[in-house]
Amino acid sequence: MRIHSLTMTGIGPYAGREHIDFDAVGASGRFLLTGPTGSGKTTIIDAIVFALYGDVADSADSSKERIRSTLVGPHTESVIELVFSTGAGVYRVRRTPTYERAKRRGQGTTTQNGTVKLWHLAEVGGQPLDEPVTRVGDADAEIARAVGLSREQFTQTVVLPQGKFARFLRADSSERQHLLKDVFGTGIYDAIQDALIQASRDGARRVEQAAADLRGQVASLGRHPLLTEAPSPTTRTTDAGEETADADQAVHPEDSSPDNSLQQAPSGGTQEALPLPMDDADRKEPQEADDAPAQAPAQALEAAMAGTAPDLVALRRIGAEVLEVSSNRVASAEAHAEAAGTALTRAQSAREEAQSLHDLLERRRALIEEKERLAERAEQEADDARRLQDAERASRVRPYLVAEQAARRRAQQAVAALAARADQSGLAHLAEQAGVTSADSAEEATGSEADSHGAAVTPAALVEPLVREAQRQLTALEDQPSEAMAGDAEAGAAPQNSDAAETPVAADESETERAEALSPRGLDDLAHRCRREHGQLEALVDLEADLPARESALQQREAELQRVAGQLEQRAEKLAERPAQRTALVETLEAARAAHERLEGLQDRRARAEERHRAALAVEQLSAQLAQQDAACTQAAALAQEATERVRATRLAWISGTAGALAGELTEGEPCPVCGSTTHPSLASAGTDGATRQQVEAAEERQKQADEALSGAVRERDACAARLEEAQRASDGMNAPAAKAALEAATTALTTAQATADGVDELVERLEAFDAGTEQERTALDAARSAQESARSRLEAERETLAQDQRRCLEARGTWPSVTARAAALLVRAKEAEDASEDVDTARTTLAQARSALADLAAALKEEGFTSAAQATVAFMERGAIEALAATVRAAATARERVRLGLEGPQIAALSGQEEDRLEDASAELARADAAARQAASLQARTAESHEHLRRAVDGVEQAATAYEEAAGSSADLIRVATLARGENEAGTPLATWVLQARFEEVLVFANERLSQMSSGRYELIRVAEETSQRRRRKGLGLAVVDHLGDERTRDPRTLSGGETFYVSLSLALALADIVSAESGGVSLETLFIDEGFGTLDADTLQAVMAQIDHLRAGGRTVGIVSHVAELRDQIAERIAVRRVVSGGSTLRVTA
Questions:
Q1: Element (H, E) at 933
Q2: Residue 221: alpha-carbon gap to chain centroid
């Protein structure tokens, strides 16, 4: 894993945005993160850990709430962005902590929950490959998958936080096991170990299950009825000749005994005993061979399963023997069923022959009876045939009769309609005359034209004679049917004479006269004249209809002209008032220009007043702060003095204790290890209140912190005093109230001047617009007056045209109330004439059709042989009745033919009448044969089914025996391997723990290489079974230190000093990084942060440690050192310097 860049905004002491490019600052393989104590160096480490895991590096001793800067307001968001890369790719994560932000509406704050966004980038600085992950749980899971380390593991191998550097060194075996398992990915060995144990258990269960299955299959086989018989299957024999004889006997049921019944064992499932035939001969067969009873198969099965392990050979032998006996029984049952089937076939053939003879005899008897019935109905069938012929002839005449009646009805309706039309025309003419008379009395001046209109021909006058002619022709038509029928009869009885050829000619002449008598030419001429006159009046009708609207429009225009004239007078008066308005506008513009000239001086005055007011307020605030800073300096000085006294006392106590301990070990005559003297004249005494080296170091650290706090307090007090002096000079000696009053006065004067001066440009534009408006209004008024005069002229001309049109309409309407009324009357008269003409034409046509239909009817009656229409009507039948009668006649003929053909058939004709019907005897014989065949088939089926169940039972035993052999043979090795993997071995170590021990020893090899250099060969790390005082189960991951300068006894890591603990822990951390990086597919640790600890090293050890860090650079790793040791600042040029700012926060300066 490599960290490329970090960006922070509003994080810890960093109020602003801070960016660190680790690729640039760490290009040399190492860089220094330095700055004063408490300035925010550790905050950078926490920011990296928080971006990845949502928590700080040392969550046990500090809270992640410290991520949110206290130097920013509620409107500022705290954001951390980290770009890093692993074997899974390049990622950018953006995370914000939970904080109190300002409400978007109203006052106060609300809790803003923490957020996270994770992008997968194409490259460092590149574009995202897909949409970001925004759910916290999903982002955390993806980061953990990409990094491959948990937060605890990350802070022990990549980021070593302040105060927790030696956590891995001092961890117990359980903690080391948890870390190493995830770092090296050895969880698979836990899975293998668990899988082996589970597989061994499964193997044992499979053997036991196979044995249980075998016992179940054997028990099922033992319940089969064949195995419960006393003799062993090997001693039973069956004679084939006897079985065949028994099968032949089974064909004849009368020879069988009720004792030959089948015994069926109860069925309890697929492995239970199934039906097995057992007859008296089988049950009474004597035993052969030895006098002692043989062992039954069921007992033999029990004996084979009685031992500790099943006797698979005996089980297979017994199964083969019982299958052989069952097969013999199946063969016997099949022979029996075959003989019964042959007898059944013979009985079925005899039955079919008897059935055929029975059917022929029954058929002959039925045909003779039907022939006698048909002879009795012959006379009735002949009468039905005659009726059918008359009905068919009448049905052919029927269409002509119907057509003649329909034509007569249409002629009657047409003549009636024509008469009604004549009555309507007469009434319409009377109403028209009444309207014209009233118009004549109202306008006597036009009476000369009334005579011509009153004398005009009306449709009623023309229709009356035509109605009378049509009624006459209709009356003549109604009298003709009887004459036509009589004439047809006479023509049929007498021979034709020479005048018969002239009859059609006379008829044509008579039809022409009738048509000419009903001609509508007069009505057509009247309709044409009326429509021509109506067309001449159409233009005047539209003109007359528009006259009222035109007169009303002229009146409205007259009123509009008068209104517009009044508006023009008002506009002329307003135009005369505009010069005075322009003078007032010019005066306002001059006043605004004068105010604009004073504006700059007033702005300068207000700016000076604002500066004095801010300075006066600052004087008050800084005075109070200076008093607080003085008190803080006094308190810090007292604490620093107290820390100095405590350091001196602690150091003296430590020196005294050390000298006393050394004096206690001196021997007279031997050199002192301090001064080398062999004489010890004045031995120091061991004090009871001595101090340890750690207490001295702790007191010195507290003194250092107190001195730094005092220096910081003095610096803050001096800075506050300088700011107060500067504020006093800027306020010109004015206090805050006086400065505020001066500011308000300057602000009021400036506001008034600005309000006045801001309108200069607007007033100039208003003046220009006013002049343009005046000119535009004058031009528009002149144009409106010209338009008014033109409109008046056009109005007078249109009045004259209207009077002329009114006179034309008055002349055209005549005696009618209006031109429209006269035109409507002409149109109505034309329509009446056209309708009457159409009715006359219809009456003429229908009368001619009626006469034609009457002639067609007479010809049809003659052709079909009827003397009158009444005779045809009597003979007529509906279509359904004709079809029914025809079906009856055809059925009678068909029946006679069918009886004749049936009696003449060869089979029936060959019968003599003396044949005997033996169907009942043949049926009884067939029933007996069928019963015997079914009994034999049932016996065969049950025997075969029993054999099949026996075979499946034997197969089940064989399969269970094979499965038992396989399970017992394959599980032995697996159980042995699982026992070793579980830890039941000489070392007592499970597989997963053994692998971790080996990997841990690899870590110690790498760690000792660096530790030997850092400690000048003094210390070495070794693996022990468990650290001291550990009573839990041994995991073999204990750690001990060997001191080669002493007696080389092992030491607990907790006994190391601060500096020793630092470089031993550093060796372990670097070794972990080396091992993990060397693993293919593992976690690559390319960046390492070390937070503090270098201050505990002497100069030589520091150089040895730095030499090891330099070795890392050759391997492509980057080490970030967090320290404020001066010597490191001299050695490392690439650094990230944390600097305090006056506001109380910090900022970064990166030197690459």
A1: helix 919-981
A2: 58
Q: Cα(63)–Cα(70) distance, rounded to whole angstroms?
A: 14
The upper half-sphere exposure of residue 399, i.e. CA atoms within 13 Å in the direction of its Cβ, equals: 6
* Helix and strand numbers, DSSP H then E, in the chain: 30, 16
Give kind and range of the element (H or E) at residue 120.
strand 115-121
For 681, the token pair is: 């004249």
Least confident stretch, 10-24, 156-170, 312-326, 342-356: 156-170
- pTM of the entire predicted model: 0.37
SS (H, E, C) 123-138: CCCCCECCCCECCHHH
Residue type at position 107: Q
Residue range 317-342: mean pLDDT, rounded: 87
Closest CA to 364 of 915, 922, 891: 915
Q: Which residues pair with 14 in a beta bridge?
A: 11
**Interior angle at CA 978, CA 973 and CA 981, nearest 5:** 130
- pLDDT tens per residue across span 1004-1028: 888 888 888 888 888 888 888 765 5
- According to DSSP, the β-strands at 1038-1043 and 1019-1024 are antiparallel
Cα Rg of the chain, angstroms: 68
Convert the pLDDT of each residue in 281-311 to its tens digit. Answer: 333 343 433 444 556 777 888 888 887 778 8
Residue 526 CA to residue 362 CA, distance in Å, equals 92
User: What's the CA gap between 634 and 620, in Å, rounded?
Assistant: 22
Handedness of CA 823, 824, 829, 831 (dihedral sign): positive
What is d(CA 763, CA 941) in angstroms, rounded to the nearest whole number?
A: 125
The angle at the Cα of 518, spanning 516 to 522, to the nearest 5 degrees, equals 90
C-beta separation of 835 from 418 below 8 A: no
Structure tokens at 89: 């790719």
Maximum pairwise Cα distance, the chain: 200
What distance in Å separates the CA atoms of residue 473 and residue 151, rounded to the nearest whole number?
125
Burial of 1085 (0-12, 13-18, 19+ CB in 10 A): buried
**Alpha-carbon span 107 to 120, nearest angstrom:** 39
Is residue 523 within 8 Å of residue 833, measured between CB atoms?
Answer: yes
DSSP-derived pairing of the beta strands 1135-1140 and 115-121: unpaired
Residues 6+ apart with CB under 8 A from 1137: 34, 35, 1148, 1149, 1150, 1151
| Cα–Cα distance for residue pair 1102/1015, rounded to 1 Å | 10
